[in-house]
Amino acid sequence: MRLLYIIFSALITLSCTNSPQSENSKDLATENNKGNSPTARQSSDSSKWTNSFLEFSKAITKGDRNAVKSFIDFPIKNEGNEIWYLADSRLVMEISPKKIVPFTESDFDKYFSSIFALPFRKTLEKLNVDEFFEKNTAISPEIEVVKGSRSKLQADYYKANNKVTLTLFTTGEANLTVQYRFDITTDEQLRFRQVHVE
User: Fold this and answer.
1) What per-residue confidence (pLDDT) applies to 46?
2) pLDDT below 50 — which residues of the chain?
3) pLDDT digits (tens, 9 = 90+) for 61-91
4) Is residue 131, in this structure, part of any structural domain at all?
5) Based on the structure, what is the number of domains in the chain?
6) Is residue 137 part of a domain?
7) What is the residue range of 114's domain?
8) Cα(165)–Cα(110) distance, rounded to whole angstroms?
9) CA–CA distance from 9 to each of 57, 144, 179, 181, 187 (Å)?
10) Residue 23 lies in a domain
């Protein structure tokens, strides 16, 4: 339990450096090697979910909390309550992983910058979406977002069960892996479901 507390403390330290994106930030399309191009959208069997993914990516990289909410069904019922630990590492000792504590929309508003921390936003911005849509997997370049640590993001689409996983790898004083798990609905929309922290 102590190790889990140390990991989450490191995560909170990383998320505390979050700040809203500056106005001169480049648009997602240019950062993603023209990932919004029509060929990128059409390279997968289903272009509708890819459009939804692009909308989600744009909302995340801009730090647009309200737009991100449109990809979530509240309350979030995260297995093991891991979203709570990601939100605030102090909750590791307070919330049992055995009984799910719903994560409400007001909780999301309060902890948005901890759940979708700057390393996640910056690495998602660097992800080559053309490659992701073509190969159903891609890894962003490893970058330093927070001094003393390096992060990269791996995106995977699992066609057999219509799921997308975005895995953030952070190395430095503490190594941390956070999986962001999504479903693709029957109408081919991306829906955030939960996180898993390793």
Assistant:
1) 55
2) 1-45
3) 999 999 999 999 999 999 999 999 999 988 8
4) yes
5) 1
6) yes
7) 2-18+32-197
8) 24
9) 26, 19, 17, 22, 38
10) no
Q: What DSSP string runs through the chain?
A: -HHHHHHHHHHHHHHTT--PPPTTPPPHHHHTTSTTSHHHHHSSS-HHHHHHHHHHHHHHHHT-HHHHHTTB-SSB--GGGHHHHHH-GGGGTTS-SSS---B-HHHHHHHHHHHT-HHHHHHHHH--HHHHHHHSEEEPPPB-SSTT-EEEEEEEEEGGGTEEEEEEEEESSS-EEEEEEEEE-TT--EEEEEEEE-
pLDDT at residue 17, rounded to an integer: 43
Is 138 inside any structural domain? yes
The residue written with tokens 């159903």 in the block is 136
The pair of structure tokens assigned to 188 is 């081919």
